[in-house]
Design a protein that fits this description.
Two copies of one chain form a homodimer.
Chain A: H1 7-23, H2 27-37, E1 43-44, H3 45-52, H4 56-68, E2 72-75, E3 84-87, H5 91-127, H6 132-162
Antiparallel strand pairs in A: 1-3, 2-3
Helix pairs in contact in A: 1-2, 2-4, 3-4, 5-6
The structure holds a DNA duplex (30 and 30 nucleotides).
Chain lengths: ~160, ~160
Amino acid sequence: MATPLGRTRLEFIEVAGRVCQIVGLPRSVGQVYGLLYLSPRPLALDDIADQLSISKASVSTGTRQLAAWQAIRQVWVPGDRRDHFEAVGDLRELLRSVYSGFFSPKYAKTGRKLEVLLSTLEAERREGSVSRDDHDFYKERLAHLVQIQSRASKLLPLMEKLL
Amino acid sequence: MATPLGRTRLEFIEVAGRVCQIVGLPRSVGQVYGLLYLSPRPLALDDIADQLSISKASVSTGTRQLAAWQAIRQVWVPGDRRDHFEAVGDLRELLRSVYSGFFSPKYAKTGRKLEVLLSTLEAERREGSVSRDDHDFYKERLAHLVQIQSRASKLLPLMEKLL
DNA sequence: CAGTTCGTTCAATCTCGTTTGAACAGTTAG
DNA sequence: CTAACTGTTCAAACGAGATTGAACGAACTG
């Protein structure tokens, strides 16, 4: 079969690419994953580049990225010495690893920064560079942030479980 | 007071800007909100532009955006005919409105698209343009997506409640 | 050992969306 | 009415980062 891309696949690849773009990832990464996710057979690097009409370079970096996240895996196809790729079936596992590898660190960093801000604030108060009223105002606002942060810290693990 | 930006504010504005950038919003929007959130007094458009060293144009569009989300409100300061802005205290309310105004629609759209894909797939099967095996494969993959979608549809309202 | 075939790397290019300066319209003040 | 001031709009500039083509190195092939 000449494997013409069906309307279904095209639509899906489009969506996958767009999702990646929104999250701040290269569109090509999403396209590659989308193509592989809906591909009954593993595809070689060339095939991917051809079908998506993007350069091998993009596919090369994209596949490496996706493989690092274990979103796709490299499979060996007898009689072909090229690398072939297929999407890992369990999408939930992927979401989980993306979360713990990308989102969770950022989140933790934010938490630490918040603490730093609080101590900085106290320091500035002691220096007298902030009036009492302003100090109280700032403290209230930061306290609100801390509250949200703590709520989120309870919510996120829950998400991981339920998803 | 000449209101020199304290280290605290600078740090916070930096973070707010970065967060916006990650979510795909203009950095300036985050900066404006960050500045206002930590400002004990309402600020005029000029003040914001000055303190952030960005153009009035950016501030103008930014404030309008933020006001539309009710993240900030316009307040009248006696004796000054310029518009002044202050951040709305309740950040949770903001998160909720951002969710329902931006995220939720996108999510619904995705759901609809998924259904379209399923029917398209069936159509292609009937046309005979897809082999039975491939059809089954596609169906399985799409079913997985639908499953994730339905789980998420239960999770998101929960988030809204707990946050 | 040449000659291919693959995959990766990297500098150059291109693309997209933010940012800006300048012009504009509306409003107040003298 | 004119002048000053405020906020908005818009085309153009700019910058970040994705994409690409070409060159390279490695692995196979005959």
